[in-house]
Amino acid sequence: MLHTALLAAALASFASAHTAAWANGMYCRNGNSTDPSHSEPNTNLAVSPLYNLTKEDWWFQHDRGCDLAPPPTGEFLQLPANGNFTVELAHNRAFTTLSYDGKLTTAWPDGVQHPEDWNSWHGEGSECLEDGALHAFNQSHAAGTAWAISYQSDIKKVNMENLVVFSVLQHTPWKRLATYQVPNLPKCPEGGCTCAWLWVPDKCGQSNMYMQPYKCTVTSATSSVPVAKAQPPVYCADDKSKCVKGAKQMIVYSQLTDNNIDVTRPATPGYNEKCGWIAGPQRDIFAL
Ligand SMILES: *[C@@H]1O[C@H](CO)[C@@H](O)[C@H](O)[C@H]1NC(C)=O
Ligand SMILES: *[C@@H]1O[C@H](CO)[C@@H](O)[C@H](O)[C@H]1NC(C)=O
Ligand SMILES: *[C@@H]1O[C@H](CO)[C@@H](O)[C@H](O)[C@H]1NC(C)=O
Ligand SMILES: *[C@@H]1O[C@H](CO)[C@@H](O)[C@H](O)[C@H]1NC(C)=O
User: Fold this and answer.
1) How confident is the chain (288 residues) per 10-residue block, as mean pLDDT?
2) Ligand 4 center to residue 123 CA distance, Å?
3) Residue 38, exposed/middle/buried by CB under 10 A (0-12, 13-18, 19+)?
4) What's this model's pTM, rounded to 2 decimal places?
5) Alpha-carbon gap, residue 157 to 172, rounded angstroms
6) Whole-Å CA distances, 128 to 12, 91, 137, 150, 200
7) Residue 53 alpha carbon to ligand 2 centre in Å
8) Could you say which residues form the signal peptide (predicted)?
9) Which of 155, 145, 120 shows the shortest CA–CA distance to 25?
10) What pLDDT does 133 receive?
């Protein structure tokens, strides 16, 4: 039974929220509880951005305990080699099919309706969309979100060099459903791989970043060519020759420690061509 009070509660908590990727394999689906009997359908713990934190705290959302709240044993985000996978980008678990049998979902991340050409841009001085959780003026301004993979089952063994960005979806976050393409990834070790959902918005609010932990696995893998060691990305909007080719690290931006990209406003880095990422599956990340 869907109560108005429930919707009101979900909307109230969305007001201060941002965006996360919701799917099987995610950490912190139940809030930050590691008690499997506790499941919080109306949680936005995974969606707050990371800002001005030390690496200890920003790394996989340790600031809110998400790195300590893995999915149930055996549950993974499944990445079909050379195929696609779909997750839900939303401001609260309530607005995904992971809660309330999906009764609060719409085509959008906030559980309400918007025009297809939703746009607040009318030249310099425009306000960003009233849904600040998307950090954008319109779809084409949405900066792009990405996934990275590490062939380490133990989240504690993941580091900047073994966590490689493998897929970029341009002009997201935008709609709730987001489909990412997978390159020719090899299979994961027995205990699976560790993945991260990534986003750096293009202004529209405080400079920040997102790095959300997942347990993931590669299905239908046929390749045995491993991913290469990840290099830090370089902002190259002004000079394409500076773009880093091949396996790249996530962007660490606007943190107190361990930022790995040197960009000052009004420029902002992002998972897009400005930092050397083409849209879609990253096919140049393998150790040849
Ligand atoms: C996370 O879990 C701890 C207990 O492990 C609790 O004290 C804390 O309040 C939780 N944080 C949030 C933001 O829910
Ligand atoms: C970042 O955090 C540090 C330490 O907590 C604080 O001293 C500093 O004022 C913060 N900087 C910004 C820009 O918020
Ligand atoms: C994956 O998505 C792309 C882009 O939307 C599409 O062209 C392609 O056919 C899809 N591939 C599979 C295997 O579904
Ligand atoms: C979307 O917003 C950007 C501002 O970043 C603007 O340049 C672009 O023209 C806008 N698109 C439309 C269709 O208004």
Assistant:
1) 50 63 97 84 95 98 96 97 98 97 97 94 90 89 97 98 98 97 98 98 90 98 98 96 98 98 90 98 95
2) 8
3) exposed
4) 0.93
5) 29
6) 20, 17, 5, 35, 16
7) 8
8) 1-17
9) 155
10) 84
Fold of 2-281: Coagulation Factor XIII; Chain A, domain 1 (2.70.50)
Phi-psi region of 130 (alpha: psi -120 to 50; beta: other; left: phi over 0): alpha
Q: Which residue is listed with tokens 């062939």?
A: 151
Q: Which residue has the tokens 């309530």?
A: 94
Q: Which two tokens stand for residue 225?
A: 């060519």
Query: Does residue 181 have its Cβ closer than 6 Å to ligand 3?
Result: yes
- The secondary structure of residue 157, as a DSSP letter, is G
Would you say 72 and 25 are in contact if contact means Cβ atoms under 8 Å apart?
A: no
Q: How many whole angstroms from 259 Cα to the centroid of ligand 2?
A: 14
Residue type, 141: H
CB neighbours of 156 closer than 8 A, spacing ≥ 6? none
Residues 27, 32: Cα–Cα separation, whole Å: 8
Q: Name the amino acid, one letter, at 230.
A: A
The sign of the CA dihedral 116, 135, 236, 179 is negative
For residues 81 and 78, what is the distance between their CA atoms, to the nearest angstrom?
Answer: 9
For residue 202, the ligand 4 atom closest to its alpha carbon is: 5
What single DSSP character describes residue 102? Answer: G
**Alpha carbons 231 and 276: distance in angstroms, whole number:** 12
Check residue 160 and give its pLDDT. 98
Name the phi and psi angles at 94, rounded to 5. -60, -30
